[in-house]
Design goal:
By secondary structure, this protein is α+β, with helices and mostly antiparallel strands. The protein has one domain: Trna Endonuclease, Chain: A, domain 1 (3-Layer(aba) Sandwich), CATH 3.40.1350.10. Helix content is 26%, strand content 31%. It is built from five helices and ten strands; from the N terminus they run αββββββαββαβαβα. The strands form three sheets. Strands 1-4-5-7-8-10 form a six-stranded mixed sheet, sandwiched between helices. A two-stranded antiparallel ribbon has the order 2-3. A two-stranded antiparallel sheet has the order 6-9. A hairpin with a 5-residue loop joins strand 2 and strand 3. The radius of gyration is 21 Å and the shape is globular.
Length: 189
């Protein structure tokens, strides 16, 4: 390629990167939740992971920098908040698998937490994104718990999620508008 100042530059493809081309599920959910907050629709937040700082030092700019920390307790689910007077709690997961969701992605303490929320009649669900299929589902806790209680498998087949879950259509501003489905499933409209 010839530039106006006479410099010649050869075009190469080695400088092109496709890293971080699409948003992750967490980024999409954070953007959607911010839209809900900004428009007084719902107040749903990502829960911080509880950590215990063991060692911190000050850098040359006077800012404190964590040098050593550990998780102080197991986290529960990723998001919680309030919508139309109802408590909402959900876990968000991504998988590259095309035909099933591995249950190894959900820890036992998270399942216990989901059971408690479900028992207390909170709105609880999983949001599962199949990244290679570009499909995102909302699976109500009722069907998630029913599956793990009645099957000895290490994964949930996509066919089950297709049957009992709800496909979330991707949108521009509300990337993962899951409240549209919450309104229908839990009859909140």
């Amino acid at each position: 390629m010839n530039y106006p100042n006479g410099i010649k530059k050869e075009l190469t493809t080695k400088n092109i990167t496709y890293k971080n081309r699409g948003m992750t599920l967490e980024e999409d959910l954070n953007q959607t939740n911010q839209y809900y907050i900004d428009n007084d629709i719902a107040y749903i937040y990502k829960k911080p992971t509880p950590i215990k700082v063991v060692k911190a030092e000050y850098n040359k700019n006077g800012y404190r920098v964590i040098k050593e920390a550990y998780y102080s307790e197991p986290s529960t689910t990723d998001y919680n908040g309030i919508y139309k007077g109802c408590y909402i709690d959900y876990e968000a997961k991504e998988t590259k698998n095309k035909s099933y969701f591995p249950l190894a992605n959900i820890h036992e303490h998270q399942i216990k937490h989901i059971r408690h929320i479900d028992k207390e009649k909170g709105i609880c669900f999983l949001i599962i994104r199949f990244t290679t299929l570009n499909k995102t589902y909302l699976l109500p806790s009722k069907y998630f718990l029913d599956y793990i209680d009645n099957n000895k498998k290490s994964s949930i087949p996509l066919s089950y999620i297709d049957e009992y879950g709800y496909l979330i259509k991707e949108k521009y501003v509300k990337r993962v508008d899951y409240l549209e489905i919450v309104d229908k499933v839990w009859r909140l409209s």
